[in-house]
Write a structure and sequence with these properties.
This protein is of the alpha/beta class and 243 residues long. The protein has 8 helices and 8 strands. It has an 8-stranded mixed β-sheet, with helices on both faces. Helix 1 (24-40) links the parallel strand 1 (10-15) and strand 2. Helix 1 packs parallel to helix 2 (52-64) and helix 1 (24-40) packs parallel to helix 8. The longest helix is centred in the middle third of the chain and has 18 residues, at 117-134.
């Protein structure tokens, strides 16, 4: 039996597909990852869709009793018949740029699963924010310095499930070899093959932002008696919704 504390130990943002994939293996991956989150007492932050891999992970974790926070851009409501998920906490934001900033505000770790163009764009964006967190050559916009994690300092982890991201890794290696990607840039994220390695990576890595981030202030635990309560007002001027 897994005994959980009332306060999540990590708040991990999962970036993944809004589709479930061509085979049942991706649904199983989502279910297995939800169990990893539950056993480690991690809070899930995700893109707010009830569909695809992200919908499967969030629903399964919510049913287990875990904490789930969805951040959804208003224009994307059309892909789910205008509806938000019926589980966890849900928040609408005006666009995908605000969505990424809000997810960064709520997270101190980032996990990339199989997905399409949206997931690839998110990886590139978060990777660049990670670079800005290393040695910014100019003044950082206030929208980020006010966020809970600031410009990304937390771990970026790619789950190369059944070699899904093998070609992306090879492209990064090629870019480094051809002088377009620095060695530091190529080493700014981790690539793992299994869920056990996901758990190990997030459980053992150093979090430079821990002292700045109090997860208990973000939202009450997603217990049944709390459903319907809004998240605290974001510093990114998002619109909070009740479930």
């Amino acid at each position: 039996m897994v005994v959980l504390s009332t306060k999540p130990t990590r708040s991990i943002c999962v970036l993944c597909g809004g589709n479930i994939g061509a085979e049942g293996k991706y649904a199983k991956l989502a279910d297995d990852l939800a169990m990893v989150f539950y056993k480690n007492n991690w809070r899930l932050v995700y893109g707010g869709s009830p569909r695809g891999i992200m919908g499967r992970i969030s629903r399964t974790l919510a049913e287990l009793g875990g904490d789930v926070i969805g951040i959804k851009p208003t224009p994307f409501l059309k892909y789910s018949n205008g509806k938000l998920p019926e589980w966890g906490y849900n928040e609408l934001v005006p666009d995908i740029h605000t969505q990424k900033a809000r997810m960064a505000e709520l997270s101190n770790g980032y996990l990339f699963l199989p997905g399409g163009f949206g997931t690839l764009e998110e990886f590139c964006a978060f990777r660049m924010w990670r670079k800005l967190g290393e040695q910014p050559p100019y003044k950082i916009p206030k929208i980020f310095t006010d966020a809970a994690v600031g410009i990304i300092k937390a771990p970026l982890v790619i789950l190369n499930f059944e070699n899904y991201y093998e070609d992306l890794v090879k492209w990064i290696e090629l870019g480094a070899g051809e002088g377009f990607i620095s060695e530091n840039a190529a080493a700014a994220f981790s690539v793992v093959q299994t869920l056990d390695k996901v758990s190990e990576t997030f459980s053992t890595c150093s979090y430079a932002t821990d002292e700045q981030l109090d997860l208990s202030d973000m939202a009450p635990p997603c217990k049944k008696e709390y459903l319907g309560l809004p998240l605290p007002v974001s510093r990114l001027a998002t619109k909070n919704l009740r479930d």
